[in-house]
Amino acid sequence: xxxxxxxxxxxxxxxxxxxxxxxxxxxxxxxxxxxxxxxxxxxxxxxxxxxxxxxxxxxxxxxxxxxxxxxxxxxxxxxxxxxxxxxxxxxxxxxxxxxxxxxxxxxxxxxxxxxxxxxxxxxxxxxxxxxxxxxxxxxxxxxxxxxxxxxxxxxxxxx
Length: 159
Known about the structure:
Oligomer: single chain
Number of helices: 4
Largest sheet: none
Distance between the termini: 83 Å
Strand content: under 5%
Helix content: 55-70%
Number of strands: 0
Number of domains: 1
Shape: elongated
C-alpha cells in the first residue's frame, strides 16, 4: 500500500510540473504574439491607427479576451490597410481581416463537444497564419518610407 501511495504522489507531482510548464510556454507564446502585434501598430502612423499599440495587452484579461479579439483584430487589419494606403503601397487582399474574425469564432466553437477539437486545430492554424501575416506587414512597413514628404508624425508640432 505504501508503494502505491508513493507512486500516486510522484505521478501527481510530475503531472503538476507538466501543467505548470505548459502554462508557462503558453504565456510565453502569447507574449511574443502580442509583442509582434504591438510592434506592428507602432510602425503605423498615429493618424492611421484605429487602436493604440498598448491595447493589445488587454488580451490577457480573462473573459474580456473572449470578446476583445472581435474588436481588436479588425482594427489592426484596417490600421495596416490605412497605413499601406497612406504610404502608397499597393497590396491586394483584406490585410488578414478574414482570419482575424475567424479566429475568435473558432475559439468560441471550441466549447462545442467533438466539433471543439476540430475548431481548436483550425484556430491554431489560423493563429500561426495571422501571426506570420502581421509579422510580414511589420517588416514591410519598417522597410518602406513613411508617407508624406518624409516628415515624421511629430512635424505638426513645429507648425
